């Protein structure tokens, strides 16, 4: 409780700018904070965070250095053995590469679709409002359901080919999920489609906050709509771009459900994201190896997050 | 400032918890159930069990298997048995649960060496060595499977699958083929004849992937009989040696020669059943879950009329057996003596007094001398069961680990890899799994 006393003493100093001081954990409420919440209210949330997030992450580090498997009862430390093996056989790097490519594609499609929709549906007409609701529905759908629906639509004898056959008059039996090169793009489009409603919403919010005077001024300067978009509105959307790109990119690094339901990692494992690979390895009973991979994934996300967010924030500074 | 001080405290707290975390939770009851705790007693099949509750884990495709026999058992003993469905992929879900310390009393499980070690049988399962029901089996089936290191851990309830060829009788007849092929080469020859006659000889379901391994495994039947898997287990022979690699080459050659359905890259299990029933394809190399698929699409009379089965191997008609999860049960060492005994009692009931009820309800082939096959078992199933007696073990049965051969083969079908790469990937994964199990030859 010594710390509590310290805080109280310090807060007694009238000159100390109270807003700058760290939050209090215990002790009687400071009269000037009485209207705010006591920090101890956060404890349950922190406890949950500790048990379900922090500890698993720590264990994730620990188990990666063991030989934990379903085959035997004891768990021994094996040093960096798992890392050496995984790096030497190339499978891990392959899955990591696929994951990064996928994440970049998803970030691209999701933001492209979201931005297009936001610009299209910007005006608050009745039709636009209704369209926004419908376009937001995929965000609320189960990712597995989305995956299975698209898998059925894109089968060689699925609905898409049936429609194309009807329209073109020729028999179309393309295996849309059959190419080892392009399937990852198709799946990324599906992922982008599912989440585009969210990006749309955030871009819409961004567009709404743009000062009408700026638009008016640029109109008076004789700009075309395209010039206004490129030189005024899009740069002013920078904070929305930061949020959307970062969440799409980093979120899809952890992707699993959509791809698992659509392709299961195929064809020929060309869409086997790291998470699918981890899942498969875990299923083989190689728990330590799977843990090592998920640690690598965790580090990758962390390593990508800082530069990506930093870069996007710097864009905002130009404003 | 405050957070700067709480973080180290949290780290210390977490570090204190680590030693607890480093013992395998699945092993907490390790010594209670394993082998040497004197020969386990086998209660009478119908002894009173009022108040005892048992749980059986089953997969989505096996959760109805125990229904009738369990109801009869409850009736006879007063026990209450819950059949809990574990979501697919079943093996993976069960392994994960057991690894975290969650165990049922009984579970459906593939009774092969590799899958029993995947459950860490010596620690987690009850040995079933002196079970009274063993003498009921037909002698040639008694020791077919369910063993790991000479200890019996699984009870076979249904005829294990035998990899072989399901064929459309009408298609062969129409093309003047009256005798079924007598060896692998003969079968390929028949296939080529059919191809010339404009019939698709074989089917592959590259979309669902898992059946791709059957083409390689049937070609390995003779080598398996000569101890191939022992050599692979001892790290003396590798998947990259000609004995295995050649079979992969042959398989790819047949695909390239156009002996398979056009959509072999994307076709599914479902498509395969439809194609054979419709006569769009003449032959399918498969196991009996495929026949289950056919049974869901046609009745026994139609199946008897249309579908036949023969085993195949390079040198003749030897089948390759591959028991699956719906064929057998394992009893867990839960640490509760009464429930462990009750679980054994249920197995005993199932394979003695309850067995006629079971085969009748399931319309399945009987494994026991005294219990006849129920009327209405389709012919193809009986042929498959007949192939069992002189069959050889599959990779799953005899190899210490079960690598994802089928995935690597499916990759090859997609054109992404070569047979050599398939063999290398399979060997690498096999070595990894064997090493995790502590198999000596793979220790470094």
The number of helices of chain A is 14
What's the order of the H and E elements of chain A? Answer: HHHHHHHHHHHHHH
Strand content of chain B: 5-15%
What's the number of helices of chain B?
22
Coarse structural class of chain A: mainly alpha
- Stated plainly, the CATH topology of the largest domain in chain B is called D-Maltodextrin-Binding Protein, domain 2
Oligomer: heterodimer
State mean pLDDT of chain B (0 to 100 scale): 87
CATH architecture of chain A: Orthogonal Bundle
Can you give the helix content of chain B as a percent range?
Answer: 40-55%
Greatest interface (CB-CB under 8 A), with counts per chain:
A-B, 44 and 48 residues
Question: Percent of residues of chain A in helical segments?
Answer: 55-70%
Which stretches of chain B are low in confidence, meaning pLDDT under 50 for 5 or more residues running?
A: 1-23, 25-38
Report how far apart the termini of chain A are: 47 Å
Mean pLDDT of chain A: 85
Largest sheet features of chain A: none
Question: Largest beta sheet of chain B, briefly?
Answer: 6 strands, mixed
Family (chain B): Belongs to the bacterial solute-binding protein 1 family.
Protein name (chain B): Carbohydrate ABC transporter substrate-binding protein
Pfam families (chain B): SBP_bac_1 (PF01547)
InterPro entries (chain B): Bact_solute-bd_prot1, SBP
Tell me what you see in this structure.
Chain A has 319 residues and is mostly helical. In chain A, 68% of the residues lie in helices and 0% in strands. Chain A has one domain (93-317): MetI-like (MetI-like fold, Orthogonal Bundle). Chain A is built from 14 helices and no strands. The radius of gyration of chain A is 26 Å and the shape is globular. The model of chain A is unreliable at 1-23 (pLDDT under 50). Chain B has 22 helices and 13 strands. Chain B has two domains: 38-160 and 324-377, D-Maltodextrin-Binding Protein, domain 2 (3-Layer(aba) Sandwich), CATH 3.40.190; 161-322 and 394-442, Periplasmic binding protein-like II (D-Maltodextrin-Binding Protein, domain 2), CATH 3.40.190. In chain B, helix 14 (269-278) packs across helix 15 (288-295). Helices cover 45% and strands 12% of the residues of chain B. Chain B is of the alpha/beta class and 444 residues long. The radius of gyration of chain B is 24 Å and the shape is globular. The longest helix of chain B is centred in the first third of the chain and has 20 residues, at 2-21. In chain B, the strands form three sheets. In chain B, strands 7, 8, 9, 10, 11 and 13 form a six-stranded mixed beta sheet that branches. Classes of the chains: A mainly alpha (319), B alpha/beta (444). Chains A and B meet through helix 2 and helix 13 of A and helix 1, helix 4, helix 21 and helix 22 of B. Chain B: Pfam families: SBP_bac_1. Chain B: Belongs to the bacterial solute-binding protein 1 family. Chain B: This is Carbohydrate ABC transporter substrate-binding protein.
């Amino acid at each position: 409780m010594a710390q509590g006393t310290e805080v109280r003493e310090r807060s007694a100093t009238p000159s100390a700018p109270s807003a700058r001081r760290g939050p209090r954990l215990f002790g009687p409420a400071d009269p000037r904070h009485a209207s705010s919440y006591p920090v101890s209210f956060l404890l349950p949330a922190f406890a949950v965070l500790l048990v379900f997030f922090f500890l698993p992450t720590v264990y994730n580090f620990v188990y990666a250095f063991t030989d934990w498997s379903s085959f035997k009862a004891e768990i021994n430390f094996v040093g960096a053995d798992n890392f050496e093996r995984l790096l030497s056989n190339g499978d891990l790097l392959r899955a990591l590469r696929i994951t990064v490519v996928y994440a970049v594609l998803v970030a691209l499609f999701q933001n492209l679709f979201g931005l297009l929709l936001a610009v299209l549906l910007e005006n608050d007409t009745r039709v636009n409002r209704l369209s926004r609701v419908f376009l937001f529905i995929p965000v609320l759908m189960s990712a597995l359901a989305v995956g299975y629906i698209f898998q059925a639509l894109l089968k060689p004898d699925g609905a898409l080919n049936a429609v194309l056959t009807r329209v073109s008059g020729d028999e179309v039996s393309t295996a849309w999920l059959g190419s080892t090169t392009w399937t990852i793009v198709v799946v990324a489009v599906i992922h982008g489609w599912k989440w585009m409603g969210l990006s749309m919403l955030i871009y819409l919010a961004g567009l709404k906050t743009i000062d009408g005077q700026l638009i008016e001024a640029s109109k008076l300067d004789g700009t075309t709509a395209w010039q206004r978009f490129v030189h005024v509105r899009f740069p002013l959307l920078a904070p929305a771009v930061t949020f959307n790109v970062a969440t799409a990119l980093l979120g899809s690094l952890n992707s699993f459900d959509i791809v698992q339901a659509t392709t299961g990692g195929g064809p020929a494992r060309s869409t086997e994201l790291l998470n699918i690979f981890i899942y498969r390895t875990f299923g083989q009973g190689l728990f330590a190896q799977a843990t090592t991979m998920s640690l690598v994934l965790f580090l990758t996300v962390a390593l990508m997050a800082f530069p990506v967010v930093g870069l996007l924030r710097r864009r905002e500074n130009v404003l | 400032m405050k957070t700067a001080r709480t973080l180290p405290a949290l780290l210390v707290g977490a570090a204190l918890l680590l030693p607890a975390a480093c013992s395998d939770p699945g092993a907490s009851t390790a010594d209670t159930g394993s082998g040497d705790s004197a020969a386990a007693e086998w209660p009478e099949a119908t002894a009173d069990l009022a108040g005892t509750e048992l749980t059986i884990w089953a997969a989505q495709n096996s959760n109805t298997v125990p229904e009738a026999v369990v109801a009869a058992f409850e009736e006879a003993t007063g026990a209450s048995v819950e059949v809990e469905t574990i979501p697919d992929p079943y093996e993976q879900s069960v392994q994960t649960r057991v690894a975290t310390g969650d165990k049922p009393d009984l579970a459906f499980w593939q009774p092969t060496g590799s899958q029993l070690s995947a459950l860490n049988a010596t620690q987690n399962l009850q040995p079933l060595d002196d079970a009274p029901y063993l003498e009921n089996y037909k002698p040639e089936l008694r020791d077919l499977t369910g063993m790991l290191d000479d200890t019996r851990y699984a009870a076979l309830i249904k005829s294990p699958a035998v990899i072989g060829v399901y064929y459309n009788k009408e298609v062969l007849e129409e093309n003047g083929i009256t005798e079924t092929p007598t060896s692998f080469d003969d079968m390929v020859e028949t296939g080529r004849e059919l191809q010339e006659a404009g019939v698709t000889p074989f089917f592959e379901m590259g979309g669902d992937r898992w059946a791709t391994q059957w083409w390689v495994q049937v070609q390995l039947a003779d080598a398996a009989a000569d101890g191939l898997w022992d050599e692979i287990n001892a790290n003396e022979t590798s998947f990259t040696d000609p004995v295995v690699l050649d079979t992969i080459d042959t398989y790819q050659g047949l695909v390239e020669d156009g002996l398979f359905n056009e959509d072999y890259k994307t076709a599914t299990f479902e498509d395969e059943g439809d194609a054979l029933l419709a006569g769009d394809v003449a032959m399918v190399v498969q196991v009996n879950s495929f026949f289950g698929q056919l049974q869901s699409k046609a009745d026994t009379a139609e199946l008897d009329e249309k579908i036949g089965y023969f085993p195949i191997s390079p040198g003749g008609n030897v089948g390759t057996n591959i028991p699956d999860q719906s064929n057998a049960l394992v009893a867990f060492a839960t640490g509760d003596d009464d429930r462990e005994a009750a679980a054994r009692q249920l197995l005993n009931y199932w394979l003695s007094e309850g067995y006629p009820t079971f085969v009748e309800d399931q319309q399945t082939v009987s494994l026991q001398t005294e219990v006849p096959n129920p009327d209405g078992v389709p012919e193809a199933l009986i042929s498959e069961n007949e192939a069992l007696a002189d069959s050889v073990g599959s990779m799953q049965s005899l190899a210490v680990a079960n690598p994802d051969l089928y995935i690597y083969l499916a990759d090859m079908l997609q054109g992404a890899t070569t047979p050599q790469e398939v063999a290398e990937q399979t060997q690498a994964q096999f070595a990894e799994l064997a090493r995790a199990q502590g198999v000596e030859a793979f220790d470094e």
